Amino acid sequence: MRLKALLAILLSLFAVSAYAQFGASIQGTVVDSSGGAVVGATVTVTNPDTGVSKTTVTGDTGFYRVSTLVPGKYTITVEAPGFKKEVTKGVFVSAEELTGHDIVLQPGAVTESVTVLRAPSRHKISSAYPR
Predict the structure, then answer these.
(1) Which of 86, 96, 88, 89 is nearest to 124 (CA)?
(2) pLDDT digits over 25-39, tens only?
(3) Paired strand residues for 54
(4) pLDDT of the residue at 95
(5) What is the pLDDT of residue 18?
(6) pLDDT tens-digit map of 106-130
(7) Looking at the DSSP assignment, which residues form a beta bridge with residue 75?
């Protein structure tokens, strides 16, 4: 009986450490070309290797955060009424890191889009000071 209890505890600890390896996040602020917050913009973060997407909506300050991501490269798509769709490809996320990515939306029809290929450099934000 003790062996089963010990095995259950070890498996629980392994599951927690495995989950912690995927504690990566992307966050930022969505603003318009004049610097004003875009409230209610839909932000979709997609891993093109796995096809897995997570979606959120910006708050009153234009802030968004997508958490529990698997390390890798992501595509961030932002859409809001009255603005061109913004697509940023190649945003790299490392395990246990918070990656910052602010987005500026340009005015335009919903049918227009802007695609940005991100350079390999990364901007890290300390998770000790969330926005």
Answers:
(1) 96
(2) 999 999 999 999 999
(3) 45
(4) 87
(5) 46
(6) 998 756 566 666 555 454 444 444 4
(7) 46
Topology of the domain comprising 23-125? Immunoglobulin-like (2.60.40)
Q: Where are the domains of the chain?
A: 23-125
CA angle 114, 117, 76 (to 5 degrees): 70
Q: What is the mean pLDDT of the chain?
A: 80
How far is residue 97's CA from residue 23's CA, in Å, rounded to a whole number?
7
Cross-strand pairs, 79: 42
> Side by side, which strands form the sheet with 53-57?
53-57, 42-46, 72-79, 85-93, 113-117
Q: pTM (2 decimals)?
A: 0.70
Q: Which helix (H) or strand (E) holds 12?
A: helix 2-20
**Residue 1 neighbours by CB distance under 10 Å:** 5
How do the residues of the chain divide into helix, strand and coil, expressed in percent and rounded to 5?
15, 45, 40
Give residue 43's identity as a one-letter amino acid code: V
CA distances from 105 to 25, 32, 57, 62, 98 (A): 21, 5, 14, 11, 22
3-state secondary structure of 7: helix
